[in-house]
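Supplementary Methods S3. Complex input for the FE2/S2 (inorganic) cluster-bound model.
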Amino acid sequence: MNEPLYAAIWRGKTNGSFSTYEVPRHESQTVLDVVTYVQRHLDPTLAYRFACRVGMCGSCAMSVNGTPRWTCRTHVAKVVRGNTVRIAPLAHLPIIRDLVTDMREFFDKWTRAKGDFVGTRTRRDDFARVAPNSPERTAADAGVECIGCGVCYAACDVVGWRADFLGPAALNRAWTLVNDARDVGGRIRLRAVAGDAGCHACHTQGSCTQWCPKQLAPTAAIAGLKRATAKAAVRGEL
Amino acid sequence: MINVVTQAKLWYWQRLSAMVLALCVVSHLAMIVYASRGGLTAAEILARTRGNAPFAAFYSVFVAACAIHVPIGLKSIAVEWLRWRERSASIAAAIIALALLVMGFRAVYAIFV
Ligand code: SF4
Ligand code: SF4
Ligand code: FES
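Predicted complex, serialized as structure tokens:
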């Protein structure tokens, strides 16, 4: 524990470079702790994002030794190589500065995937009753805990080579709504997520599922969308 | 870009043809291994396949599934990896589909008649 840790941190914009900082090691130290130490003690100009520090807000994701991770819940001990960690902004997003990326496109794609709930009830209606163990509710449950961290988006190769691909998180969100018994946006949503910019571009390789810190499975959600859109298409309902 | 309905349908057909192919390929290989245990000549093969309707039907299904499955996959590869335009890739895929159909059914005909 007394050996120092070397943190190579990305500085600047797209054409920036890594700067290395020496940081004291502690037990149960997280990658976010390392970044925070650098900013508080070594270089106050370092820009990065975080809010909750407990894995709820989804704002602290960065690329750690080449792998996208939620840094507030990633222990240094788990990812360190020798005594170095390489910390960079998330891949596939424009860099604003240092470790801060521009997430607009990521969230705009949720809107394009019709990720907003469309209901018909008003406050004067009774609650919808959804059987907790119905297959739809189970499918929605499996994807609903997404924290919007962008880890899956950064892990997805298809996002990297197709700028218009909606990506795993937006498609996962759409799938939870497809399975929401109260939602009536079905047909428009299925159209929005079909095709080459949507679920059909996915290669089912599962990088998103491998790295999602909430252990969700966008790959399975996308496979569900492929089945749902195909069913709708052959019935002439897409 | 071709429309999303067509894309969803293509996916459906590729999925369906993949299931058929999985069965066909396994049966085909099993049949080859079984039939050629003690050596096999062309004459012996033809003696078994001529006028054998179930045999011809099986290989007709096999050919059709290939002609559906292969071009859809090749089209996607051409668009994604060779950066072909959707239109040229679709035309090339249609030609390949036709070629597979012609060659495949010609072979089925040759061993049946
Ligand atoms: S499974 Fe699909 S969405 Fe997930 S990383 Fe692979 S290509 Fe991207
Ligand atoms: S699906 Fe997982 S990795 Fe992707 S944004 Fe949601 S929580 Fe993050
Ligand atoms: S800081 Fe909120 S999830 Fe990491």
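The mean pLDDT of chain B is 94. Residues A 50-53, 55-60, 70, 72 surround FE2/S2 (inorganic) cluster (ligand 3) (CB under 6 Å).
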